[in-house]
Amino acid sequence: MKYCSTRSSTQARSGYPHFCEILLEGLAPDGGLYLPESYPPVDEATLARWRGVYERVGYAALAFEVLSLYIDDIAPADLKAICDKTYTQAIFGTAQIVPLTRLLDAQTPEGQAPLYLEALSNGPTLAFKDMAMQLLGNLFEFELGRRGEELNILGATSGDTGSAAEYAMRGKKGVRVFMTSPYGRMSPFQQAQMFSLMDGNIHNIAVDGVFDDCQDMVKAVSNDLDFKRQYRIGTVNSINWARLMAQVVYYFAGYFQATRSNLEKVSFTVPSGNFGNVCAGHVARMMGLPIARLVVATNENDVLDEFFRTGVYRVRASADTHETSSPSMDISKASNFERFVFDLLGRDGTRLKALFGEALQQTGRFDLSADPAFARTTEDFGFESGRSTHADRLDTIRTTFKRFGVLIDTHTADALKVAREHLQSGVPMIVLETALPVKFAATIVEALGREPDRPPKFEGIEALPKRVTRMAADPAAIKAYIAQHCR
Ligand SMILES: *Cc1c(COP(=O)(O)O)cnc(C)c1O
Predict the structure, then answer these.
(1) Is the CB of 385 under 6 A from ligand 1?
(2) Neighbours of 57 (CB within 10 A)
(3) pLDDT at residue 48 above 80?
(4) What is the Cα–Cα distance from 283 to 260, expressed in whole angstroms?
């Protein structure tokens, strides 16, 4: 499988890279995002075989099947070993890895299509980002070892991404992580999760400033090309194709659990921020997984909902981004959205360059409302959308706990609220659960007047010793820190 950039013209499509060449890269050189040259079709026979693989052998074996279609430059035995090592019950808590829970009670209307939660948040940091990041850690270690190289991952986090990256990379040979976060702004649980890691290759940097200051520091360092090259600076942000690819697998696993035969369809509702999670659903659907609808759920930061309702994509200034109780969806601009628009507009790289490389840069918006392609977002691509607010979130958490005895986190609550507005008769709806409630305890207390349960291994983590360096929001300071720790 070869990879193209969303901004490359069709003529330029020779000399495209293979998987391992783009694994350690972020953006394509032309500023676009990498996607496979075409989506490998999964025919009826293959889907039937994969159902058996998941049911009889397990998630790791299913992951190997899916990933094999996208990776032709790692030997099958090596790739299999990487999948087996990543998706274990010890790391993800259950044999199914992503078990479904049906929401059903006496009040549920007779004949309503089943509504499920798919648990993606039982990994080491209790958020769905572990699903991809754990694989990435093992892929990085393999590829860097093979090349005899090192990589220094520099990132900015407001919570979930940073901890998922650190838990995936801790103790990995050839990798160091330098993770900046805004001083004092993460929840105590999230701070404890990250700062209690004592691994020598993990560096926590608490910056005097807000998340945007952290991101600006990371950008400033990445724009210093000499420094970047000298210190082999890389990223693990959600535009990395390997993360998206890893996420495709759980759409298949969710489908197999919710259906008995491959003639059935299901829909998914996905709590969305940077559009990485739902974009993986789009890829699964393009491969041929029988998905009826992909419902994009946003919070008050509704850039994506606005696009799917109106055809206008309008990024927000960071000052206009609301701080909400589902903070991992607080985005001003959805960094993976370009991948979907590329497919929507018939993979026209020249046009994508004009939209994302020019119009969006200059005016902060583009308008596809008059484009015939926009009318196809639902019919041909299955997309629908909705939004949720703080009041909806509280109400959904409360009702779900009362009716079903199931405690959900704030992001999952946004998705469940929107999912209920998009049920179709005869089509099971799977809501992706993206975090455990303990990560966002304050809102749970607000909704229910009680603390969420905490998995035993996290008892008392706030009291553990912390390993963190406080720093001014100054790119020179972090450069000096990196240089000092790479000797
Ligand atoms: C990252 C995250 C999201 C948003 O996912 P995207 O891939 O950015 O759309 C939703 N919920 C939680 C808990 C997250 O950590």
Answers:
(1) no
(2) 12
(3) yes
(4) 22
Q: Tell whether ligand 1 has an atom less than 6 A from the beta carbon of residue 299.
A: no
Q: Give the pLDDT confidence of 284-330 residue by residue, as tens digits.
A: 999 999 999 999 999 999 999 999 999 999 998 878 888 899 999 99
**Distances in whole angstroms, Cα of residue 96 to Cα of each of 30, 90, 175, 253, 270:** 40, 12, 30, 8, 20
CB-based burial label for 346 (10 Å; 0-12, 13-18, 19+): exposed
- The DSSP annotation for 309-362 comes to HHSEEEPPPGGG----SSGGG--SS-TTHHHHHHHHTTT-HHHHIIIIIIIHHH
Instruction: For a ligand 1 pocket test, name from 120, 129, 278 the mutation site with the most ligand atoms within 8 angstroms of its C-beta.
Output: 129
Report, as an integer, the average pLDDT of 373-393. 97
- HSE at residue 216, side-chain half, CA atoms within 13 A, is 13
Distance (angstroms) between ligand 1 centre and the Cα of 403 equals: 26
Supply φ then ψ for residue 35, to 5 degrees.
Answer: -140, 155
339 lines ligand 1 (CB under 6 A): no
Annotated active-site residue 129? The verdict is yes
Question: Cα–Cα distance between 235 and 227 in angstroms, integer?
Answer: 14
Annotated active-site residue in 2, 85, 129, 173: 129
Find the radius of gyration of the CA atoms of the chain. Answer: 21
Our answer on whether the CB atom of 275 is closer than 6 Å to any ligand 1 atom is yes
- Domains present along the chain, CATH in parentheses: 100-124+242-448 (3.40.50.1100)
Q: Is the pLDDT of residue 487 over 90?
A: no
Residue 59 has pLDDT above 70, yes or no: yes
